[in-house]
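Sample 3 of the quickstart, ligand NAP:
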Amino acid sequence: MTATPNPTPPQPGVTGIPTGLLIGAGWRDASDGKVFEVECPATGEVLATVADGGPADADDALAGAVAAQASWARTAPRYRSEILRRAYDLVMARQDWLAEVMTLEMGKPLAEAKGEVAYAAEFLRWFSEEAVRISGDHTTTGDGGNRIIVTREPVGPCVLITPWNFPLAMGTRKIAPAVAAGCTMVLKPAPQTPLTSLALAAILQESGLPEGVLNIINTTDAATVVQRWMSSGKARKISFTGSTAVGKVLLRQAADAVMRSSMELGGNAPFIVCADADVDTAVEGAVSAKMRNMGEACTAANRMYVHRDIAREFSERLAARMAELNVGNGLDEGVQVGPLIDAAARSKVQRLVDDALSRGATALTGGRPVDGPGYFYPPTVLADVAPDSDLMTTEVFGPVAPVIPFVDEDEAVARANDTDWGLVGYLFTQDIDRAFDLSERLEVGMVGVNTGVVSNPAAPFGGIKQSGLGREGGKVGIDEFLEYKYLSIPRRRGREAASR
Ligand code: NAP
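Result:
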């Protein structure tokens, strides 16, 4: 049974969102009273100040999660399922409000933010359904002597770390399977976007999540807070979404504690357009794979390899489509491209574009930052990009599409795979055999065939190589939060069976 959600958001804008730390029984200030400011990247306006947790708060939060673990693990799957289902209903009932909060603190256009709310909510619904389908196995040893009964148990208290680019969906993609499996959590959201996570936590409380199951520490000192959890010996699992560089630091810490690890890390997605592709479909696919979230997505197409016969036509049409996109404050009607997250992100994009231009690339559109307040950068298409440009080996995380012609498929595959990352690849062709052949040869965890979108809660999201370990979503998403336990039970007449 689900509660009837209240369709009215608590307050307009970010007003009314808790700004403290969620520790055990409730919300509180940082123990040393510290706070930090959350800024709107479109205007520079300070939206709120939130508690800035330190080591003592981190310890308390983990203690809260540890204390709640045993009783939470014993709850009925249906009980956990219904909490998630209520949270789904509440998130969807407050879709407009949550979208506005996200646009305010992160910058993405309102329409995209609404899409993220629906995507994020779907993880709550998906895992509410998975919670009641956790199953084990039963078999007999080869010699017939013993029964083997395999059960699944929650791994225990989890450390969850999320980035700023999809603040709601990256939260629910971890929290929902952890709740479904019966794990307690300490969550550290990105400091640029804590308000979305805090609003979600309030909704989960309203949905009936018991005290101590979810604990949240906002902090400007991630390294200290998280290291504290990792070295505690009490956290059993780390689930991290963020850059490969930070993922490696956390994997080293996890090794010392032999912790289960799920890593959703960076990408450098190739986008291959074969000579037989439908160019309209490829251009539209490129716009979605490049421009979702202003290019600040791990799935963003980073390198566009286009067959030389259609490279010019594709580049010009892509440039024309990108030039039409409306750049501005994501709250404004009709805006399709919001600001980048901060000044450093914008400077990084400009440095990469300048490097490519200095090596002979041509900007078909964009290429210079937009003046005025906010961290805006225009949609940019670069042609004739030299293969040794920094753009090709760096995750751009901005609205820049470099187009590189290729001669044959072997060359396209070799270039596509010539990277340490392996999250996602895109390919466009009208030949089904070619589609299967190329997707098998791409060293990635996900392939978009004639589409620029792969993310879906029903699908296993994740990468290979340095893009990560494990999968989020789909049927396997809950496995990341479960351990196997096997019971060995001798059969009554096993000795007899074994001797036959
Ligand atoms: P980031 O710098 O790695 O930060 C991610 C999170 O880790 C933040 O909450 C950050 O907090 C925290 N963090 C940083 N240093 C830490 C440390 N030493 N110990 C513990 N936590 C630490 O990444 P980002 O710039 O926020 O996000 C962009 C990256 O995420 C990109 O590479 C993108 O591809 C990747 N990403 C991957 C996926 C995926 O599913 N594969 C999805 C989204 C994003 P502070 O900011 O306070 O340092």
